[in-house]
Fold:
Amino acid sequence: MRILVVEDEKKVARFLEKGLREEGYSVDVSHDGTDGLLKAHVHDYDLLVLDVMLPGKSGLEVVRELRARESSVPVLLLTARGDQDDIVLGLDAGADDYLTKPFGFDELLARVRALLRRGGSARPDRLIYDDLELDRVTHKAHRGGDRLDLTPKEFQLLEFLMLNTERVVRRTELLEKVWDLQFDPMSNVIDVHVGHLRRKLRESGDDPLVQTVRGVGYIFQKGEAK
Structure:
């Protein structure tokens, strides 16, 4: 899943980016509201973590403009302690939740998970395909009862492929949803991660499940790609 953090305090932004990446999320960062709004329009994010006090456009303005354009992306507002008026205005503008500074990362992570689960029926907590099961809340995956030892990025890759079973996923889609804006699209890191994921899937089952569609991308299905 891909998250946009819009926070002008660079120390706080780095803290959030590092923590969320370690939890297996793809993270983009903006330091002002204008750039954050642009990124939110251009890219398909699963969640926005948005500070209220921002240069350019305030967090409240960003939320209003997103909702005016009928964007339903979940928004978690970050506010200074005691700014009750901003909290009320933000929720009225269309934000989904808020967190007052200073906050613990565990609390933020719990709210992030709750908002991602709340995103709708298209976001089930568990994904199941054949003998493979992936838990999106605990970030654990099992095949045939065996726990898969996946890195955070391998987990994200498997999650996205399982959300799109039996259809061809283009490499550009993986760049958009699994990797972030700092990723070099000319590198072979996607192929390396797919190779590692195939090997781990095959260790717990006969079928690697991830098939290559030459010149296009990959398909997640049993047997050979047609």
About this structure: DSSP finds eight helices and twelve strands in the chain. The mean pLDDT is 87. The chain has two domains: 2-117, 126-220. The two ends are 28 Å apart (CA to CA).
